[in-house]
């Protein structure tokens, strides 16, 4: 099956699963690096569900929150985005087994999650670039 952009469906599904895995690993590493964010039960299933919910909230709710907070985001030169990311992490914690100690922990946890995701994504792109060169 080929999608409208000309790429096979399997490639899109592979990219989705890879991004889900990176998000799950980043979320798990965040719970290990920062004590304010943790899982009630640390099973792999809980981490994958939380990563999936995080992806959905980032895709559906976060853009709306950023749009609504645009004036204050401009005034703070983008720093208010940290608060929005904390709200997103709190929403994920509300519907999964992820536990956030308080809102401050959610903001710090979102910052740690962002850095960990960025590092993992960078490593993956470097490895992907090396694979394509071979």
UniProtKB/TrEMBL annotation:
Mind giving the lineage of the organism this protein is from? Bacteria, Thermotogati, Deinococcota, Deinococci, Deinococcales
Q: What's the protein called, per UniProt?
A: Membrane protein
Which InterPro entries does this entry report, sorted A to Z? Phage_holin_4_2
According to the record, the segments passing through the membrane are 16-35, 47-68, 74-92, 99-120
Q: Which organism is it from?
A: Deinococcus aquiradiocola
Annotated Pfam families? Phage_holin_4_2 (PF04020)
Keyword vocabulary terms for this entry = Membrane, Transmembrane, Transmembrane helix
